């Protein structure tokens, strides 16, 4: 594990190809952008991902990270929060504004629930707390890449007076743009693409947030409430975003 004492000091990785020989899902085109200001941790992460066949780019500060991303968007981003210059939160927000589909896995020594909620609301796809297992980080990156490479069955969807364009990440109601947060849009997309199927709160957390130890399933409830307020004609009596009591939710087009 990476050991910390206020800041990262002695990264200890076992990243030999023998240890991580089961490569699943990555291709020669998969490139990881590692944003980390500690040179030792940066090197360790490079070895970890290169041992699995990924191409790796690194950035030691937020400004460089944004510039590198703009030059050639990677397949995924591993982002440390504590960075010189532009903060990790700002980098996360900037990347998601440019390319919402690129997954971001955040690294942080912070364990406060409010920090995790904030990062996920900004669009981060997963959150790993230091110290962490290299195997866990690798598994989370692979899972994030699998999610974005799944075939999209529906590029556009319409119901009532609402039109959704998943490619543009755009929702229009009665000719007007409806503003959704990154997580609200992800929730909407997953539900629409699983229409008529009952989805549990845990499944939504795992598939939409990609975070298996999220503080509370109330987060799902809050996002469904927001979608009802923004997209239902009568939010108090939802037609499309239905509650299945004791189980979860179901989208009906």
| CATH topology description of the largest domain | Rossmann fold
Structural class, from secondary structure content? alpha/beta
Task: State the order of secondary-structure elements, H for helix, E for strand.
Answer: EEEHEHEHEHEHEEEEHEHHEE
The radius of gyration computed from the alpha-carbon positions, rounded to a whole number of angstroms, is 19 Å
Q: Looking at the structure, what is the overall shape?
A: elongated
Number of domains: 2
CATH class of the largest domain: Alpha Beta
Number of helices: 8
CATH superfamily of the largest domain: Response regulator
Cα distance spanning the termini: 46 Å
Helix content: 25-40%
- Strand proportion: 15-25%
A few lines on this structure:
The chain is α/β, with parallel strands linked by helices and 253 residues long. It is 37% helix and 23% strand.
